Amino acid sequence: MKETRDKVLLLVDWDNIFYSIFDSFGPDKLDLDKRFERLTIWVKKEVGELWGGFGFVFAPGHLNSYHRQICDQAGLKIMICPKRQIDDGTEDTVDETIIWFGLLMVKHPEVGYLCLVSGDQDYVSLLERTKAEGVKIALAVPTINSLSTNKALIRYVDRHPITNKKMIIRLDKPI
After folding, report:
1. Pairing mode, if any, of strands 89-91 and 7-13?
2. Distance between CA atoms of 113 and 8, rounded to whole angstroms?
3. The domain 7-170 is classified under which CATH number: 3.40.50.1010, 2.60.40.1220, 3.40.50.2000, 3.40.640.10?
4. Can you say how many angstroms the Cα of residue 81 is from the centroid of all Cα atoms in its chain?
5. 45 has which bridge partners?
6. Cα(121)–Cα(125) distance, integer angstroms
7. For the whole prediction, is pTM greater than 0.90?
8. For the segment 80-92, what is each residue's pLDDT rounded down to a tens digit?
9. Using one digit for the tens of pLDDT, what is the confidence trace for 5-57?
10. Of the candidates 10, 65, 27, 33, which has an alpha carbon nearest to the alpha carbon of residue 171?
11. Measured between alpha carbons, how far is 130 from 100 in angstroms, rounded to an integer?
């Protein structure tokens, strides 16, 4: 039986989503559980079924138990990305880990879509190489302010086959 490339690889940049929403709404209106629920409903309705039935959240080691529980309830597997020791301190490894994992997974024969949850232009190389693999791209932007100033990621987003609209959701819209 031939496998089809119709599953969605969902990759979430935790710091990008958390701090963008925190900065926009403050601690009392984060509603991450509702935002993740809205995200997964949108992905299922507009893009397709999640590969393996879940998405992946890439987070630093200090992710607290409450936020871990929210991710788990949303069907998101947590991938902890420890800080790297460098001469003058530490450096974040989330972006490079997402890029590495994404490039590995877009080669899977069932993955036909990549949905990135971030507005960070550091992912341009991931999206370029994803396109080269023939995988379509959807984007979930935590807030309009989290989208890099040159909106570099939007040019890689594919259009929905029925509505012809770019497959983009903003998670800062009212819940």
Report:
1. unpaired
2. 5
3. 3.40.50.1010
4. 15
5. none
6. 9
7. yes
8. 998 888 888 878 8
9. 899 999 999 999 998 888 888 888 889 999 999 999 999 999 999 999 999 99
10. 33
11. 11
